[in-house]
Design a protein that fits this description.
about 190 residues; mainly beta; Lipocalin
């Protein structure tokens, strides 16, 4: 079965499949290019209610020390107090407080906590479809992105460029490519 509509048959509790999901980010570097990275360790629980989308919910926990920009020196710097301060803030969390679905876009509003600072954000997700995999697992796919200001989370480190501007953009685009697996009823 494959579908591109969330129907009551898809209601239930799901777990984020980290092996088939990506949580990433994009930042401007030196004002001329983009640096992409991701977090390799995260977990989450999702509850889907097609009849009452507002009853749907998401809880996500990201392990900050799993940051990966394909450059060990940069990753090390991002783990320090200049940026994510992994020693004092080992996780980034998102807990939804509202959900709305119009048939194509799922808007999740909730509390995003980075470095101990919590901000309310709304992330629009497109529903990419549902399918039963070869192992009998019901899967749902969602993709979304949302821009945040790192200053809103107390992340202010930067370096001025002699040509003007700064080394690292304030705007960070969060990217989500999520595969959910329906939990089996026990």
């Amino acid at each position: 079965m494959s579908t591109t509509t969330i129907t009551p048959a898809l209601n239930g509790s799901y777990t984020i499949d980290p092996a088939h999901s990506r949580i990433g980010f994009v930042a401007r570097h030196a004002m001329v290019t983009k640096v992409r990275g991701s977090f390799n360790s995260f977990d989450g629980a999702v509850s889907v209610d097609a009849e009452k989308p507002q009853e749907s919910s998401v809880e996500l926990t990201i392990k900050v020390d799993s940051i990966d920009t394909r450059n060990a020196d940069r990753d090390g710097h991002l783990r320090t107090n200049d940026f994510l301060d992994v020693e004092n803030h080992p996780t980034i969390t998102f807990r939804s407080t509202e959900a709305a679905f119009d048939g194509e876009t799922l808007e999740l509003t909730g509390d995003l906590t980075v470095r101990g600072v919590t901000q309310k954000v709304t992330v629009p997700f497109s529903f990419e479809g549902a399918a039963t995999d070869p192992f009998g697992n019901q899967r749902l796919g969602f993709e979304g992105q949302h821009a945040i200001s790192r200053k809103d989370y107390g992340i202010t480190w930067n370096a001025a460029l002699e040509t003007g501007g700064v080394l690292v953009s304030d705007k960070i685009v969060l990217e989500f490519e999520i595969s959910l697996v329906k939990n089996q009823n026990v």
